[in-house]
Design a protein that fits this description.
The protein is an all-alpha fold and about 190 residues long. The protein is built from 7 helices and no strands. It has one domain: Arp2/3 complex 21 kDa subunit ARPC3 (Orthogonal Bundle).
């Protein structure tokens, strides 16, 4: 029973960290980044947090993080409720699928993956708008989506590194709890 309570503590603290990161990114994106806009464009910090989380914790966590971040963005700023929830959840899921296939020990590969995730999220938004017959010029993907993705890659290493270090601390704590036996001992 002690391992179940430890697991629940770890689970809840992980999600508290995610919630705080999403809240902080929402505040920064609305209060600070408008002043740092370049040609009216600013990084999509929420998507950077979602993609970073997904690259570290996998598709399920990426989907849930994207759903929560997108829903918050939709409710606070969205003209079309559900658009950002859908796009961020989808990209969070697929970023999580890539999680085991990229080299995470260097910061540059995940940073590039996060930049691609931000760009793909812009593409998904564009496709959804077009599917709803809402005017969205295809050129917008190149003139807005690509620069936003590039700008987002500038902040991506800072976010990813914090989550990577947090995950390393979780693994160290797991090892300490299980006596180095790994996941098999936790499952029993």
């Amino acid at each position: 029973m002690k391992t179940l309570t430890d697991w629940l503590d770890r689970l809840s603290s992980r999600h508290v960290v995610l919630g705080l990161a999403l809240l902080a990114s929402l505040i920064l994106q609305t209060a600070v980044f408008p002043h740092l806009a370049v040609f009216g464009l600013r990084p999509d910090l929420l998507m950077v947090v979602v993609a970073s989380w997904a690259l570290i914790y996998g598709p399920r966590e990426g989907f849930l993080a994207g759903l929560g971040a997108g829903l918050a963005q939709d409710l606070l700023f969205g003209q079309y409720i559900g658009l950002f929830a859908l796009s961020k959840a989808l990209i969070g899921f697929f970023a999580g699928v890539v999680e085991g296939k990229i080299f995470r020990q260097t910061i540059w590969v995940p940073t590039a993956a996060i930049g691609v995730a931000v760009f793909l999220q812009e593409v998904v938004v564009w496709v959804c708008l077009r599917a709803l017959s809402i005017p969205a010029p295809a050129l917008g993907i190149l003139t807005v989506g690509f620069p936003v993705a590039l700008y987002s890659t500038l902040v991506a290493p800072l976010v990813y590194r914090q989550f990577f270090l947090y995950r390393g601390g979780e693994r160290a704590k797991e090892k300490e709890i299980t006596g180095g036996a790994g996941q098999a001992a936790v499952r029993r």
